[in-house]
Design brief:
9 helices, Four Helix Bundle (Hemerythrin (Met), subunit A), alpha/beta, single chain, five-stranded mixed β-sheet, 2 domains, 12 strands, about 15% strand, four-stranded mixed β-sheet, Ribosomal Protein L15, Chain: K, domain 2
Length: about 300
């Protein structure tokens, strides 16, 4: 959202909002903050905001940060169009119930949440009695099928998801997938910290600071980043990463991804709508398993 579009301020849910601003200076003024640009100034009632997303070209004063903290407004420094999340600062919170709900679910019904995440991606399946290993196997088959279908549709040669850590040696499609997923992780990270939940407390992934980010991002990969990556990998390699990021930004904006994540997390934890207040990463980390953590980035489908 640009400065001259404040009358179209998006809402994550009734009563609470987020605002994206870039190429401006953020200062404190009385009980509000002010966004300054070469076109003039715009006052923002920070107490009504859940989260202020600061894009490229935005700078913020110490007094403005203190005003946001005092008003319970989280600050997230992100990429253009809120595509990547670089850092976050959480303001004052009146309640920790969102985090407590996440921790309670992790401690008491972890497998139930894992099954819910699976059904959100692949509905109408009978998962009764299936172990975590069996669920991973089913998911692995589904994801590989999605890759193969996208490759056939776009005419891209596909030999599997492979990334050794050497960026320049990766195939164009694997580079495109890594770039697209990094963009998705940024948006999911921004949404999670904005609603007061922990990015680290994952249910399938574990052992990483962004384990829950990876869990939630997996809900959208086959729908969003996989088609974009295969489509853009047909073009020249020289600007592949830039094209992928731009395509992700446009897709996330059109699909209102930020507005989808909060209700999806609500559903994941079985929360009522009134309970949730708000609103580069190429390794998968470890995966949780009842018998002990196992390595990520491994196909368990057989």
């Amino acid at each position: 959202m640009r400065i001259n579009d404040l009358h179209l301020l998006p809402r994550v849910e009734d009563g609470l909002t987020f605002l994206y601003a870039d190429r401006c200076r953020v200062e404190q003024s009385d009980s509000a903050i002010v966004l300054l640009t070469e076109r003039g100034s715009t006052a923002v009632p920070v107490a009504l905001l859940s989260c202020l997303l600061l894009g490229p070209g935005a700078c913020v004063t110490h007094a403005a940060v203190r005003s946001c903290a005092d008003s319970g407004c989280s600050l997230v420094w992100c990429g253009d169009g809120a595509v990547r999340c670089y850092a976050s600062g959480t303001g004052e919170t009146n309640s920790s119930r969102n985090l407590l709900a996440q921790a309670e679910a992790w401690a008491e019904r972890r497998m139930q949440v894992v099954r819910t995440m699976y059904l959100m991606r692949f509905p109408n399946e009978n998962l009764e009695g299936l172990s975590l290993e069996q669920l991973r196997g089913r998911e692995g088959v589904r994801v590989r099928t999605a890759y193969q279908s996208a490759a056939a549709r776009e005419g891209v040669v596909w030999s599997g998801r492979k990334y050794s850590g050497e960026w320049d040696e990766a195939s164009p499609i694997n580079r495109a997938l890594s770039s697209a997923n990094a963009c998705l992780y940024g948006v999911v990270h921004a949404a999670i910290v904005s609603i007061g939940m922990s990015p680290a407390l994952g249910f399938v992934h574990t052992g990483k600071a962004l384990s829950f980010v990876y869990d939630v991002a997996d809900l959208y990969k086959c729908e969003l980043t996989v088609p974009i990556a295969f489509r853009e990998s047909r073009g020249a390699l020289s600007d592949l990463d830039t094209r992928v990021r731009r395509a992700c930004r446009e897709s996330f904006f059109r699909g209102k991804l930020l507005g989808r994540i909060v209700p999806d997390v609500q559903r994941l934890f079985g929360l009522r709508e009134s309970v949730v207040r708000s609103f580069e990463l190429t390794t998968s980390g470890e995966l949780w398993d009842p018998d002990g953590n196992v390595a990520g980035a491994v196909g368990y489908g057989g």
